[in-house]
Structures are given as C-alpha cells and as structure tokens.
Design a protein that fits this description.
This protein has 298 residues and is an alpha+beta fold. The protein is 41% helix and 12% strand.
Length: 298
Amino acid sequence: MTVSLPGSSGSITTQLGQQGLGQQPWWVEQWMELINSYRYKKRLERAWDYARSGNVLSIRFEGRRVHARVQGTEKDPYKVKLWLDVLNDEDWGYVLEALSQKARWSAQLLAGIMPQDIERAFAASGKRLFPFKLQEVRSECSCLDKANPCKHISAVYYLMGDRFSEDPFVLFQLRGRTRSQLLTELAVRRREGADTQLEQAPHPLHPALGDPGRWWRYDAALDPDLVVITPALEGESGLDEAGPLPLAEEPRFPEANHLFLERLRQQGQTLGQLAMARAMAAGAEPANGSAEPVNDSA
C-alpha cells in the first residue's frame, strides 16, 4: 500500500506492506528495532494498522522536532510531537573533529550513506546518534491515552523510518545539526586540517611542486658512474633486431664472431652511458659556456 504524507517540502511517500517497509538500509532497521522492542505488542499492531491505513495525515520535520497529525477515533486528528535530546556545540565539536579525521566517513555522508561505524565518531563526545532505548525518544500526543508511546505516536514512529531511508541526515537534524550545517562545518575542519599538515611538514617542499615546468629539468651535473644503460629485457636491442650478421667464420677461431658481437654490445652500452652523462651535465656548464670535455673513446 502506498501512503502519501504531505510534508513541509513536498509529500513524503512510503511503501508499506504486510510485513513492514521491506529491504531497508541498516540505519532504518536500527531505528525500527527500537519501536519493535516495545513490550505492548497489541498496541504496536494497532499502530501498524494506522500507518498502513493512512491515518497519519502529515509528518513535518521542523528543526529539531517532528510534528505529525494522526486521525484517530475522534473527529479532529491528534497532534503528535517527537524529538531527541540535542547535542550541544561542545559535543558537536568532538563529533566533527572525529568525522574530519576519516575521509571515508565524509565521502559516505556526502553520498547520502550512513557509515556503519558512525557511532565511533559520536563516542568521542560521550553521546550517541541513535537512541539506545525507546525511552530516549521524547514524544507527546494530544490524545487521552496516558501510555507513551501511544498508538498514534507509534504509527508516526514507523513512518519516520521510511523518511530516514530517503535522507539519513534527518537523524543528525534531530540531534541539532542540519545537513548543510554538518557538511559545511565538516568541510571547514578538513580544510583547516590540511593547512595544518602543510605548515607542520617536517621537510621543506621541493620548488618543483609549485612550478611544474621544473619537473623535467635537471640542473646539476651527474657522475657518469651513476648512469647505467641496461640492455633490453626481451631481446629488442638494435643488434638483435638486425638478425645474424654476415661475418666470415674462421674454423681456427670458432668463438671469434660471438666475442666480436659481445664486444660490440659492450661498446654501445659504454657510449650510451657517456652520452647520457653528457646530456645530464648540460645544465652544469661553466660560466664561459664551455663544458668540460667528456672522453667518449673506449
């Protein structure tokens, strides 16, 4: 059954079946476990009938409170209020500090997903995001039933779970921070943390970080002994690509051709190493513009 609840910002629609709200995110299931733990099961059955039958006429999330109108047996609908204890600014400071330390938490919240270990961030303040027990959910109803929660409050409670599945930030709002406030303060703290890390860097930043044009320039002379030209790993050197050289063979010296080619490879590697050293030393020429000669004879 589909029930539309006119809210303060459009309508809130919930899909209610005989068994419940169906497959829901873990934070909705945790919220629903609170009401399902209520010991008066007959009262919960009537509340569930109210929720499925459309007796909850409206739900509005205004600031830190939930206002609802529930049609009961009387002509006029009953007025229901729900709220949670709000965290003060100091408590929220601890929570935001903890949230800013983990990029994963920030990324999941920005994606509209409640981190499964979110309570670890609230533990820094000694508080909780989710109520630990049903009695921590404050509520009022204009009906004459002295039991709390009554069936009208419980019906609203059921439908709030569906609202949480659409926007987990509603839970934060009930604790004292709206979505925009939370994300703005979180972004500020993460930015301040990044600036502090730069200021406290143990080593000075390399100039190339601020000037990408210096990334490919090397201005110091390089010791030729540090330059090593390695042969191709897959036999792709020029000599290998050229194939067998048409060298005359001397039966008296069967290894002569092999030794000659090996000497040729070594010579090529040595000359390549010296050429690399000459290129790398180009930025360290003397002031008169003449570089020291490099002995490339081998």
